[in-house]
Design a protein that fits this description.
The complex is a heterotrimer of chains A (about 300), B (about 375) and C (about 325). Chain A is mainly α. Chain A has 14 helices and no strands. Chain B has two domains: about 230 residues, P-loop containing nucleotide triphosphate hydrolases (Rossmann fold, 3-Layer(aba) Sandwich), CATH 3.40.50; about 120 residues, Beta Barrel (OB fold (Dihydrolipoamide Acetyltransferase, E2P)). Classes of the chains: A mainly alpha (about 300), B alpha+beta (about 375), C mainly alpha (about 325).
């Protein structure tokens, strides 16, 4: 197929005339420089705190007092990092962040699994097996997404005290499951509602029931949305502070709460380098999730932001 | 041939997108007042070409002249064009009137001039009563008319249409097709129209440019395109139901004759060869279903045979019949009054002069 | 669509049971549906209805450490609005909310528009703008607390460069501490706003841009008069997300200022938690919590009203 147009259009050769030819001259205008300028300034603003924390965490206390906030340490030391992990003090306890890290891992892992399981079933039932008043229940749940936690925290504390589970792992997992439910259910409901109804009908005709359709058909299809949900929950639960302070108790104190306690401890010298190392350590898990997940993270935010 | 006779002239246009060459050394001259249709499957570069003409895409090499001006480096608004898009691209929060006048207002036209132009466009497109509505309150057909109106008020020399009817249902599509044709007859502007629908192309165009892989395969009037396709690709692309093809050999001698692979002889003495071919060569004979005659008249044809009917598809106005000739599936259309049934035998015949012969290797017309 | 077709029970309810006996399987599955969503039903009714009502009731009592049902009318609300700490909290919330949401939306939009200009290194820049959101607000608060700390932060650094008179210590001053909070908050949230708005921008039909270019409408006019009005959805989403965050603002205050200096950066969320835990005045805390619920309900009602009106307009048209 190499028939060239020359064969069919009269006047074949020497066609390019004088004057402009080829691509437009690219102009690196002032406006464009301004755009890049603004973006670079913004990028510096966003990077600055993290840069400061990293360089400071590698400095010794005397060097920090010299005040060269932005400079790379003259003699980088990992001492503060080791101290932050193993022996930083909260009041009298000097076990570092380590116990908090493992508490956070426990809480995040269990609460993520529980809350996503519940939400997936909710979304599935709301999309395909809507019973009477199901929409009303869902409406209340979505309303719950906007309720300030402070409004329901006290009754929850009282209830959990009555049940004897206050300040246990179970209580913090329950709380995360409750407050994660509105967004996650919305996420799954919107996903399942976007699937073709015909598929569900076909499964029904093949004789599949509620759980069979859920496990055999819906779950395998819901992998992408589940990844989004996992990212949402991993970062959300790891980063939680309020519920950790109120519900986790001393035994299960998550990393964020422990970090805050270490930093706010007023006795002794303020070891800024240790504190900043501890901060980066606490931020590490969600940051790793963020950089691994890349575009999925953005989708998670967008999905979490969608309203019903 | 002088430049000044062309309304739009594209010279050696090349466009690279990343590392892929979308258009290569493309040349096209369009006469004043001509209706050109760029036709091809998706991804053939037809929309890209239109966007280059509009100045919405930066070209890699070559020139574009519109109305005797070299506009290669000019902004779209300065090229003297109006454009209609597939998705209508109306400004959703503005009323129809605002949609039509916004560009003029930005360009700094006087109020009464804007009013005159909007009124004229509304009159031409018969949408005076829609002026105060917003796009959401319009049907698809009405929206597309507003989009055409937005091109009209620019009083441009050249109109560009980018698949304007693809988002409409079949009935509306044929209605609006007629309206576009009427518009062209009234305004006599140059129009360049991109579509993948061959009916639109055949009904609207003065000339059709069939494109594939960024290259114009054939540029000709609809009659020529339909009857004398320049290569196998064009022959197969145009026409519905599509052309029947026989693989075989063209034997030259005292009397040229096409022999199918299964050995059937089809005399081609009446065929007008585009170029003389001295040697025998493997070739493809194409014949359109509507050029095959069935029944009584078949025996008078240069080639005729008796076949058994396999499938009958009544189409309303005519009937499409599937059968086999020389071990190849063949369709032909016949009068819907003829009562045919599968299994029945019937005489069919055709005149190879109405068909097309192609070189099997180069795929070019012989 | 799914509304009418989905529910097994819904389909059969309208028919007379005498004529069409209900198939067993469908009732069984419907029951499964209720059982499967039991956690949701319990959460919705138990937490988001009963707990809220319970909190509301407590706000009319004189409960201190444990719930009591000795009703005292509106006394707690009267007390609340004569408590300096609460009035400061409420004012702070408004001030902080307007400023941080406004700035976040503004810079988020600007960044999104600039990012939309076929920028090099777009994904790198997006990662940079968005990473703070991945981090806890506690971490955000701590980081900015150190940056703004006069003894080790920017002030110390600039003095180190030789400007020994330089003073920059917003968190130490009761009048400026709230601006410090705003900086921290928007550092965390601008990226998200940008991401949502950028997604909205990218969702706009590219042919709109082409049409505008052919009409000769300049880029900024296209953004302002054509694209911005088309992005109501994305802007509203970003706005709601910010507002919900503002009402809940707690972590960042604890980490950055602990409500200080004095009570200068107190916030309602902190106020409530303190009254439940340390100050042992549950009823007053619950009254404050109810006051926090109020703007949320107003916003939701407003949203409901707008949607109702849009629906009515659409119906009137068709």
């Amino acid at each position: 197929m190499t028939l060239v147009v020359n064969n069919v259009v009269p006047g074949a050769s020497g066609r390019v005339l004088e004057g402009p030819c080829g691509p437009r001259k690219s102009q690196l205008s002032i406006a464009r420089l301004g755009i890049y300028g603004f973006l670079i300034m913004a990028a510096l603003f966003f990077l600055m705190p993290f840069w400061v924390m990293i360089v400071t965490s590698l400095k010794t206390l005397p060097e920090i007092r010299e005040g060269n906030l932005f400079n790379w340490p003259s003699d980088p030391t990992f001492e503060p990092w080791i101290k932050a992990w193993f022996s930083a003090c909260t009041g009298r306890d000097c076990n570092g962040l380590q116990p908090g890290f493992w508490n956070s891992v426990k809480i995040t892992a269990i609460a993520t699994v529980v809350s996503i399981t519940i939400a997936a079933i909710n979304g599935y039932a709301l999309s395909f097996w809507r019973y009477r008043y199901a929409n009303l229940v869902f409406g209340i749940l979505v309303f719950g997404a906007f309720v300030p936690y402070q409004v329901v925290i006290y009754p929850l504390i009282i209830t959990m005290r009555e049940l004897g589970i206050f300040s246990t792992l179970l209580s913090i997992v329950l709380v995360h499951s409750i407050f994660g439910m509105p967004i996650l259910t919305l996420l799954y409901r919107n996903f399942f509602a976007s699937l073709p109804m015909e598929m569900f009908k076909a499964a029904r005709i093949d004789g599949a029931g509620f759980w069979q359709i859920f496990f055999r058909i819906m779950i395998p299809m819901a992998v992408p949305i589940t990844i989004v949900a996992i990212i949402l929950q991993l970062t959300g639960i790891w980063n939680d502070f309020l519920f950790g302070t109120v519900f986790a108790g001393r035994q299960n104190m998550p990393m964020t709460v422990q970090l805050n306690n270490i930093v706010q401890t007023t006795t002794g010298v303020r070891e800024y380098n240790v504190h900043m190392a501890a901060t980066i350590l606490t931020a590490a898990v969600p940051l790793i999730v963020y950089f691994i997940s890349g575009k999925w993270f953005v989708r998670g935010i967008a999905a979490g932001a969608v309203k019903g | 041939m002088n430049m000044s006779e062309h309304s739009v002239s594209i010279r050696d246009l090349t466009l690279d997108y990343g590392n892929t060459r979308v258009l290569e050394n493309l040349n096209l001259d369009i006469e004043q007042g001509e209706f050109i249709v760029l036709l091809g499957p998706s991804g053939c570069g037809k929309s890209t070409l239109l966007n280059c003409i509009a100045g919405l895409m930066d070209i890699s090499d070559g020139q574009i002249h519109i109305d005797n001006r070299n506009v290669t480096w000019e902004e779209p608004k300065d090229r003297g064009i109006g454009m209609v898009f597939q998705s209508y691209a109306l400004y959703p929060q503005m009323t129809v009137e605002k949609n039509l006048s916004f560009g003029l207002k930005v360009a700094g036209y006087k109020k009464d001039e804007i009013q005159r132009r909007v009124a004229r466009a509304a009159e031409i497109l018969q949408m005076e009563e829609l002026l105060q509505r917003k796009p959401v309150e319009l049907s698809g057909g009405q929206r597309q008319r507003v989009a055409i109106g937005r091109a009209l008020v620019r009083e441009a020399k050249v109109f560009l249409f980018d698949e304007p009817l693809s988002n409409l249902d079949a009935k509306l599509r044929s209605d609006l097709r007629v309206e576009i044709k009427r518009l062209h007859q009234r305004l006599k502007n140059t129009m360049i129209y991109v579509t993948h629908d061959q009916i639109e192309a055949l009904t609207l165009a003065n000339r059709i440019a069939i494109m594939k892989d960024g290259v114009i395969q054939q540029l000709a009037d609809p009659h020529t395109i339909y009857n004398k396709p320049v290569n196998l690709y064009v022959a197969g692309f145009i026409g519905s139901p599509s052309m029947n093809f026989f693989q075989g050999t063209l034997q030259t001698g005292d009397e040229t004759c096409f022999v199918t692979d299964s050995g059937t002889h089809i005399p081609t003495s009446s065929y007008q060869f585009a170029r003389a071919s001295s040697d025998s060569c493997s070739a493809v004979l194409g014949i359109r279903p509507e050029h095959i005659i069935a029944g009584e008249g078949a025996r008078g044809m240069p080639f005729s045979t008796r076949v058994e009917i396999e499938i009958v598809e009544p189409m309303g106005s005519n009937t499409l019949v599937w059968t086999r000739v020389a071990d190849q599936a063949v369709t032909f259309s016949c009068d819907s009054d003829q009562l045919l049934a599968p299994g029945q035998s019937i005489d069919i015949g055709f005149d190879p002069a109405r068909g097309s012969l192609f070189d099997a290797e180069s795929t070019l017309r012989l | 669509m799914s509304q009418t077709l989905s529910a097994g029970s819904g389909r059969y309810r309208t028919r007379s049971p005498a004529k069409y006996p209900k198939p067993r399987r469908i009732r069984w599955s419907a029951l499964m549906s209720v059982l499967g969503t039991a956690p949701m039903i319990i959460t919705a009714i138990g937490v988001f209805v009963i707990c809220i009502v319970y909190s509301g009731l407590l706000s009319f009592t004189d409960a201190r450490m444990f719930p009591s049902f000795n009703f005292v009318g509106l006394d707690q609300y009267k007390r609340l609005w004569s408590t300096g700490r609460w009035i400061v909290s409420a004012n702070n919330l408004w001030f902080f909310g307007l400023l941080s949401v406004g700035l976040s939306m503004m810079f988020g939009f600007l960044l999104a528009v600039f990012m939309d200009q076929k920028i090099r290194c777009e994904s790198l820049l997006r990662s940079i703008f968005l990473y703070p959101f991945a981090m806890s607000l506690v971490i955000t608060g701590l980081a900015w607390r150190w940056i703004l700390d006069p003894s080790i932060g920017i002030q110390a650094a600039v003095r180190g460069w030789g400007f020994t008179d330089f003073t920059f210590a917003p968190l130490v001053n009761a009048d400026t501490a709230i601006y410090g909070l705003v900086v921290g908050a928007i550092w965390n949230s601008i990226g998200v706003t940008m991401a949502i708005i950028l997604a909205g921008l990218r969702g706009i039909d590219t042919e709109i841009w082409k049409a505008a270019r052919i009409d000769g409408i300049s880029a900024w006019k296209t953004y302002l008069f054509i694209v911005l009005p088309m992005m109501k959805g994305a802007l509203f989403t970003a706005f709601v997300l910010q507002c919900v965050g503002v009402v809940r603002v707690f972590d960042i205050v604890i980490a950055m200022t602990q409500g200080g200096p004095g009570i200068a950066t107190q916030m309602p969320a902190v106020f409530v938690i303190e009254h439940i835990t340390n100050r042992i005045n549950v009823a007053l805390g619950m009254a404050a919590a109810m006051m926090m619920l109020l703007p949320v309900i107003l916003l939701l009602a407003l949203n409901g009203f707008i949607q109702w009106r849009m629906k009515r307009n659409r119906e009137r048209l068709s």
